[in-house]
Amino acid sequence: MKAVLIVSHGSRSPKLRQEIEWLIHLLRQKSSIPIFHYAFLEMESPTILEGIDQCVGDGATEINVLLNFLNSGKHVDEDIPNIVYQGQLTYPHVRFQISRPVGQHKDIADLFISMIQ
User: Fold this and answer.
1) CA-CA distance, 75 to 116, in Å (whole number)?
2) pLDDT above 70 as % of the chain
3) Count of domains for the chain
């Protein structure tokens, strides 16, 4: 069963969690994927490993880690892949995939143009 784990940086602002929960709500409405969870790299919970646990606990056999990061950097290139690898060691029967950062999506320029119009 497929799952999506949206990973964000984390913030002390309660607004971030509300925005992520709203995004999850919208994605559930627009997708047939049965499992959506979110996790944070720093400062908040659930952590990425806790998010992986939640996905597997809901029956996931495939987890798409969706990076809610605009661009590459140490977190995207090293930290998150290392944490996901720990999840792979814990759940060797689960297939993991990590997306590219949002800023590398082919439609990002159109999104930005839409925002400035």
Assistant:
1) 28
2) 100
3) 1
